[in-house]
TrEMBL record:
InterPro entries: Asp/Glu/hydantoin_racemase (IPR015942), Hydantoin_racemase-like (IPR052186), Iso_Racemase_Enz_sf (IPR053714). It comes from the Bacteria. This is Aspartate/glutamate racemase family protein. Belongs to the HyuE racemase family. It holds the Pfam family Asp_Glu_race.
Length: 241
């Protein structure tokens, strides 16, 4: 089985970390192929960057030359999952939805700990669209930008675990979801601080994708995610210069 794991930003070191986390969660015989978009922002922390990332992720997958069995969209929020489902005949799994749905097996209510406060509404909207918001106790911001997660790992751990602990104590969350692909690998330390299950979206998405492939299931093409209708698309892709 081959699974593409697509970073939503253009920072290669984040792609590498996501790929490592995905490979660690994969079953024997599953090949993880990390992809970095060819264009876009170095981190995705707002609506403009998110919509740009959606196009970049779809183009990265369309350009991949080898066959694959599933795709994981490895960014929290709205980054083009629905477009990929129209384009592909294989399962497409979004880490936001994979983490939240997994959390609901583990406790009555879950909270998401993410990066900047401006990303909180994007995640809340994504959970609402996916029908996963009813059992969400809160979406909390650590106050750290995506790229800061790499620059000072200890500061990142401290900020994330602090908000996770507050979610458990103040918001009555029973499970924590790590709300950024760049947080891959931090789950164990959040467990130590909070004492509750912590779901890493990348690892959860790998397990969901593997299960769908093994069950022989993929996206329904009857209505919502039917393939795009053939039509002329003007000036795409854009030409350099």
């Amino acid at each position: 089985m081959r699974i593409l794991v697509v970073n939503v930003n253009t920072t290669q070191s984040i792609t590498d970390a996501i790929g490592k986390q995905a490979a660690g969660a994969a079953s024997p015989g599953t090949e993880i192929v990390p992809l970095t978009p060819a264009f876009g922002a170095e981190s995705v922390e707002g609506n403009y960057e998110s919509y740009l990332a959606a196009v970049a992720v779809m183009e990265a997958v369309r350009a991949h030359p080898e066959p694959f069995d599933a795709v994981i969209q490895a960014g929290y929020g709205e980054h083009g999952r629905e477009g990929l489902q129209e384009l592909l005949d294989v399962p497409v799994v979004d880490i936001t939805e994979a983490a939240a749905s997994t959390a609901q097996y583990l406790g009555r209510r879950y909270s998401v700990v993410t990066t900047l406060d401006r990303t909180v509404p994007l995640i809340e909207e994504r959970l609402a669209v996916a029908g996963l918001s009813a059992r969400c106790a809160s979406v909390r911001a650590s106050g750290l930008a995506v790229l800061e997660l790499e620059r000072d790992e200890q500061a990142a751990v401290d900020a994330i675990t602090e908000q996770a602990a507050r979610a458990v104590e103040d918001d009555r969350a029973e499970v924590i979801c790590l709300g950024c692909g760049g947080m891959a690998g931090l789950a164990e330390r959040v467990v130590e601080r909070t004492g509750v299950p912590v779901v890493d979206g990348v690892a959860a998405a790998v397990t969901v994708a593997e299960s769908l492939v093994r069950l022989g299931l993929s996206t329904s093409k009857v209505r919502t995610y039917a393939p795009p209708r053939p039509k002329r698309i003007v000036n795409w892709p854009p030409q350099a210069g």
